[in-house]
Design a protein that fits this description.
By secondary structure, the chain is an alpha+beta fold. 18% of the residues lie in helices and 40% in strands.
């Protein structure tokens, strides 16, 4: 009995090794990891916003506004579109694609704040980006002044742009 099991075990191990080598060599030819996409996820319309946060967790808030004066009434003026949060990072890109409801508005108001209310971390607009007509404004909030980017919506409905970058440096 002992002489029969050793060759069978050797055959089983050989088959498993051959299968492993085959799988490794067949997947090795793909440039990307299976199940992921390393290509840019840009859509045909919209924008990409960026955040650089060296010290604190952050929140990016986006509002749709009918006019520039509507946007500047207060930080939360306008129709809230979304809130994205993150941890300290060298660079985080956030893409936004417009839908049909955006056509009712003239501006997208974007600002970034610390997500920890105990830390008074100020995020400024580092660059305005490529969207034509983008404005950087300051809105008073308590004792602080918050930098906001006002981005015209019309160009976003027909093209994709790299837009504002916010930083706490």
């Amino acid at each position: 009995m002992r002489g029969f099991s050793a060759p069978l075990l050797l055959l089983l191990i050989s088959c498993l090794m051959a299968a492993g080598i085959f799988i490794y060599s067949s997947y090795r030819t793909y440039p990307n990891v299976r199940g992921t996409n390393t290509q840019s996820q840009q859509s045909k319309t919209g924008l990409e916003l960026s955040v650089v946060s060296t010290n604190t967790s952050w929140e990016m808030l986006k509002y749709l506004c009918i006019s520039e004066s509507d946007c500047l009434e207060s930080l939360d003026a306008g129709r809230r579109l979304s809130k994205v949060s993150g941890s300290p990072t060298e660079l985080r890109d956030i893409s936004e694609s417009p839908d049909d409801t955006w056509k009712e508005f003239k501006f997208l108001k974007v600002y970034v704040r610390s997500s920890l209310s105990l830390i008074n971390s100020s995020f400024s607009v580092l660059t305005l980006g490529d969207v034509p007509g983008t404005l950087m404004k300051v809105i008073p909030f308590g004792n602080a002044k918050v930098n906001v980017a006002l981005i015209p919506i019309e160009p976003l409905l027909s093209s994709f742009y790299k837009s504002a970058t916010f930083s706490d440096r």
